[in-house]
Specification:
Radius of gyration: 18 Å
Order of helices and strands: EHEHEHEHEHEHEHEEHH
Helix content: 25-40%
CATH topology of the largest domain: D-Maltodextrin-Binding Protein, domain 2
Structural class: alpha/beta
CATH superfamily of the largest domain: Periplasmic binding protein-like II
Number of domains: 2
Shape: elongated
CATH architecture of the largest domain: 3-Layer(aba) Sandwich
Largest sheet: 9 strands, mixed
CATH class of the largest domain: Alpha Beta
């Protein structure tokens, strides 16, 4: 049975896993996804790890295509993902309606759970937001950093208690049990990221990879993508 190797940013995890059973049954194959920060997934590919297709931010897909690592013309967008704020399920929501409210909520938190601040799309942006709000040093000892947003939200859910906040892409918040999305980052502080799938130049199964790219991006998967938190 053919195995399809897929590297994906965590934002697309619910969509990839949602499509896997039907795709595997229809094509008599196995889809083997690896999820993580987009920078980490890019680095795995560049280091030579076997991969048939990538699902990363549009910016990285464009760069890798220009560098010859992805098949030109194979890229297809899945949709746009916002970056949001989460609290533990059952806890009172916090106000993040504008910059002042966001700053107050962050100042009041006992712990801030985030994806990798230099390798993940959301994490890099969050680091910039903290700097813009003048909170980088103030919150340094309260920041809990994880390889990706799903790992950060899972850790926050396990930690429990009061006063914890999470910040990552809304798709990762929505599919992680134990946390609740309270809202997108406010105007002037938000991040909207287009995620795109593309076939790797050295794919072992290029035709099958192209079919999964189609499944991820075609109208038939639109409802799954919307339910997972993508804006189409």
């Amino acid at each position: 049975m053919m195995e399809l190797q897929l590297f994906s940013g965590g934002a697309a995890q619910a969509v990839v896993n949602g499509l896997r059973p039907s795709f595997e049954a229809a094509h008599a194959c196995t889809v083997a996804p690896t999820f993580g920060a987009v920078g980490t997934m890019r680095d795995k590919l560049l280091a030579g790890a076997p991969c048939d297709l990538l699902v990363l931010s549009q910016v990285l897909i464009d760069q890798l295509t220009q560098q010859g690592h992805l098949v030109a013309g194979s890229a297809r967008p899945l949709g746009r993902v916002e970056t949001g704020v989460a609290v533990l399920a059952g806890n009172a929501p916090v106000d993040v309606s504008d910059g002042d409210a966001l700053r107050a909520a962050l100042l009041a938190c006992k712990g801030l759970y985030v994806p990798h601040l230099t390798q993940s799309t959301a994490g890099i942006h969050i680091a910039g937001v903290l700097n813009k709000l003048g909170l980088t040093d103030t919150l340094a000892d309260r920041i809990h950093e994880y390889p990706n947003g799903n790992a950060a939200m899972t850790a926050m859910a396990k930690a429990g208690g009061q006063g914890l906040l999470g910040c990552t892409q809304v798709t990762e918040i929505r599919y992680t049990p134990g946390v609740t999305l309270v809202g997108d980052l406010p105007s002037g502080y938000g991040l909207s990221t287009v995620y795109t799938a593309a076939v790797c130049t050295h794919a072992a199964a290029p035709a099958l990879a192209a079919q999964f790219v189609q499944a991820l991006s075609e109208p038939a998967s639109a409802s799954l993508r919307k339910e997972s938190g993508f804006s189409l």
